[in-house]
Design a protein that fits this description.
The chain is mainly alpha-helical. Helices cover about 55% and strands about 5% of the residues. The chain has two domains: about 1-85, Tyrosine recombinase, N-terminal domain (DNA polymerase, domain 1); about 110-280, hpI Integrase, Chain A (Orthogonal Bundle), CATH 1.10.443.10. Strand 1 (about 160) and strand 2 (about 165-170) form a beta hairpin. Helix 1 (about 1-15) runs antiparallel to helix 2 (about 20-35), helix 2 packs across helix 4 (about 65-85) and helix 6 (about 130-145) packs antiparallel against helix 8 (about 185-195). The longest helix is centred in the first third of the chain and has 20 residues, at about 65-85. The radius of gyration is 23 Å and the shape is globular. About 25% of the residues are buried.
Length: about 300
């Protein structure tokens, strides 16, 4: 089965244009499934049954949540769909297996006072060497809603700060590019950072102290550190919370959900809808603005 997995991963890279990070996730999920089956014999691929997959998911339920199990099932389904399309198998044993039911939990986002406290925490807690960089990272995340992978993958040639069309060009899921306009505040923060950015060979916008590209785990750690310093104790608050904050803030400014979908790089409008949790106070304020008739 390992040979077929290698072919599938090559297909994802060459024909589908998936990012290395996504391909690694597929590989990890499929390797776990192979380990469960206890064989890597290519001839065994036709012997896989629906019950095998269900038992695998049942075993993973001991250590994985519903979201992780749903992702693993999605990886397995994509793999067998590919095998069917290539004529390697005649029947897809997993096509009608339903994914684990996911909890309908609204994403958390920061209030205006909370993200102002976050920015203030960076200014107070960051060391002089990292201040301009870390502040630029936080401002860019809050001011564009880009994903963590998009942030660390951003290169200097994709940052335009010099004219009226000031923006960044990011490469999102499926290698799809999108352009996101920048506010004056974000532009000023980036310009300040670039003044202090060391001259190094790396073309990445954000670099480590050693001059190499800044890795995702480093950004994740520094955001968690500043959230804690700001006294923000929302459950599982992390980098993605800033993405949710951007979406919710854009909606409050009057942006249409379709514009927000494009800015966030969502394939489906339903995904955008889940990101944009609106509080009861916001709903009440919206209703209060409704005027049905003019006073006599």
């Amino acid at each position: 089965m390992s040979n077929f997995i290698s072919q599938f991963l090559h297909y994802l890279e060459v024909e589908r244009g998936f990012s290395p990070r996504t391909i690694v996730a597929y590989q990890h999920d499929l390797n776990k499934f192979v380990d469960f089956l206890g064989t890597s014999d290519d001839k065994s691929i036709t012997a896989v049954t629906k019950n095998d997959v269900r038992q695998f998911l049942s075993q993973r339920a001991k250590t994985n949540g519903a979201v992780t199990r749903a992702r693993k099932l999605s990886s397995i389904k994509s793999f067998f769909k590919y095998l069917g399309r290539e004529g390697i198998i005649e029947a897809n044993p997993v096509s009608d297996i339903e994914a684990p039911k996911l909890p309908e939990k609204e994403p958390s986002y920061l209030t205006e006072s909370e993200y102002q406290n976050l920015i203030a925490a960076v200014k107070v807690k960051a060391t002089p060497y990292y201040l301009s960089r870390d502040l630029a990272i936080v401002m860019l995340l809050l001011g564009t809603g880009i994903r963590l992978s998009e942030l660390v993958g951003l290169t200097l040639d994709r940052v335009n700060l010099d004219n009226a069309d000031r923006s960044i060009k990011v490469c999102g899921k499926g290698n799809k590019e999108r352009i996101i306009p920048l506010t004056n505040e974000v532009v000023c923060t980036l310009q300040q950072y670039l003044k202090h950015r060391p001259e190094v060979e790396s073309s990445h916008l954000f670099i480590s102290r050693l001059g190499g590209e800044l890795h995702s785990r480093s950004v994740y750690g520094l955001i968690k550190k500043y959230l804690k310093a700001a006294g923000i104790k929302k459950e599982k608050a992390a980098v993605h919370t800033l993405r949710h904050t951007y979406g919710a803030s854009m909606l409050k400014t009057g942006a249409s959900i379709y514009a927000i979908q494009k800015l966030l790089g969502h394939k489906k409008i339903e995904t955008t809808g889940r990101y944009l949790h609106i509080s009861d106070v916001d709903l009440r304020n919206a209703v209060e603005k409704l005027v049905l008739s003019k006073p006599l």
